[in-house]
From TrEMBL:
UniProt keywords, alphabetically: 2Fe-2S, Iron, Iron-sulfur, Metal-binding
Keyword Iron: yes
Pfam families to which the protein is assigned, alphabetical: FAD_binding_6 (PF00970), NAD_binding_1 (PF00175)
Domain FAD-binding FR-type per the UniProt entry, residue ranges: 10-111
Species name: Amycolatopsis pithecellobii
Protein known as: Oxidoreductase
Length: 247
């Protein structure tokens, strides 16, 4: 699978939008049919390219949200108000429309079902996307690998995949939330930024030697990585993925 996935990364393919799901008021999951897609690993990403009538092109990288396998992929796109690509993908792009896709890309920030180590996923906002691909791959492969997810978001309304994460919790993935602006009624933790206590209580002890994946804005990722190191986790087992304002 790894060799197949990496071999297709430089080829642009014409994909067509097969369906959409609204995740939040500003985020949309795109279900794309990509003939010839070579397969991918959980955690990889793809490039999307738009071409205007005058020949001008713009491209952005988006994490793959879907489990590996087949010629259908999913990308979850957060709309950026002054962006060149995300407003089109979240507001204009219609079922049946074409778009160019290249990938999969990346071979370090990936999880393979053959790895028996416990997994700790820590997501900040839309950083949940590649981590969701790992959760979906675990389910698709029937893996029993212990998974824990700590998901930090501003408010309940900004959670991606809310229903699916409830189902994941029923199938062995332990999910805990950190709300930074507003929390649901009766939630035990007051809204605040993620802290060492959240990572410690929602994660695995360092002695378990878990594979740790952290994804989100740069400041979030740096803070969480420092917390994991302070808790004694092996830096070689802490993998990070950061994104900027243009996604």
């Amino acid at each position: 699978m790894a060799r197949t996935a990496l071999s297709g990364r430089l080829n642009w393919r014409v994909a067509r939008l097969a369906g959409v799901r609204e995740e939040t008021s500003s985020a949309r999951t795109l279900v794309l049919d990509v003939p010839g897609w070579p397969g991918h690993l959980a955690g990889q990403h793809a490039d999307v390219r738009l071409t205007a009538e005058d020949g001008y092109t713009a491209q952005r990288s988006y994490s793959l949200a879907s489990a590996s396998g087949g010629e259908r992929i999913e990308l979850t796109v957060q709309r950026v108000g002054d962006g060149e690509v995300s407003p089109y993908l979240t507001e204009v792009f219609t079922v049946g429309d074409p778009v160019e896709v290249r990938g999969p890309i990346g071979g370090w920030f990936v999880w393979r079902p053959t790895d028996p180590a416990p997994v700790l996923l820590v997501a900040g906002g839309s950083g949940i996307v590649p981590l969701m691909a790992m959760i979906r791959t675990r389910r698709a492969e029937g893996a029993r690998t212990p998974f824990r997810l700590v998901y930090s978001v501003r408010s309940p309304e900004e959670r991606y995949y809310a229903g699916e994460l409830r189902d994941a919790a029923l199938s062995g993935v332990e999910v805990s939330y950190v709300y930074t602006r507003s929390a649901p009624d009766g939630f035990s933790r007051a809204p605040a930024r993620i802290g060492v206590a959240d990572v410690n209580s929602g994660g695995w002890p360092a002695s378990f030697e878990p594979a740790c994946f952290v994804c989100g804005p740069t400041g979030f990722v740096e803070a969480v990585a420092d917390m994991l190191l302070a808790l004694g986790h092996d830096p070689r087992r802490v993998k990070t993925e950061r994104f900027g304002p243009t996604g």
